[in-house]
Amino acid sequence: LIQLSIPLNYLGMVYREVKQALSNIQRMYDLLDEAQEVADSPGAPALAVRGAELRFEHVDFHYDPARAILRDVDFSIPAGKTVAVVGTTGAGKSTLARLLYRFYDVSAGRILIDGQDIRSVTQDSLRAAIGIVPQDTVLFNDSIYYNIAYGKPSASREEVIAAARSAHIHDFIESLPQGYDSAVGERGLKLSGGEKQRVAIARTLLKNPALLVFDEATSALDTRTEKIIQAELEDIARERTTLVIAHRLSTIVDADEIIVLDQGCIVERGHHAALLAAGGRYAALWAMQQREAVPVAA
Ligand code: ATP
Question: For ligand 1, atom 15, which residue shows the shortest CA distance?
């Protein structure tokens, strides 16, 4: 009986590992599925990043030809600056990030990084230059260490810990009984929205990209966590060209430029104060969010 139970235990372990691996692979395919829509042009060179100036040049885009999603979207982010995109749900904000990462190609116009059309360079080099902190971070069913190191598989343990420290998640990890070896994901520890976002920030710090895209979570974090994460992002956005897809306007008042997107068109642009003073679409969005933020008096 003992002899039999060992291989059975072993098989059980193998089964769990294989299942886990398959579910991770499935996740990867889910993520990569969209990527298959575009291909490298033959002999494409690697992207040569200098300051990482980003330019959307008269970009049109549709997923389905019957429905335009972006129309003549034209803006630049000078090297190291921050531009925030705001607009009502479905305006096309996240689509900008998908196009930049080349999950899809533009229908018309161009996207340029330091003057190079992103369609003319290898996808590997393009994606290596861009760090995305997504709305919802995918956590693999693996250790928290693996989940951070994923940003740079060749990273040393010291680098992983340094990234976790900078993302202010190191102390939390150390407080777990199994520390960095703690299992996370669906079958492990469930992390809160703020903790997951910190894992994403740590991953991104490890990757050290020239260009940063922050797709702000729609689901509100509590005010304190949001403030802390905001400060962390300001830290990592410094010196990097940053595109913020904003859902809460309070987080972008300091952006170098704010772009207001409505049904795929830029309808307003400028600094926070100027846009408020203009009393247009942005001012209306701001007033709406201020009202939502104020608790109803009893
Ligand atoms: P939110 O603030 O709700 O995140 P958003 O401004 O980021 O919205 P997008 O995600 O860019 O909006 O979507 C813009 C439009 O494109 C939406 O109407 C959406 O339904 C549509 N869309 C998004 N992804 C696809 C897709 N893969 N295929 C077809 N249509 C899509």
Answer: 90
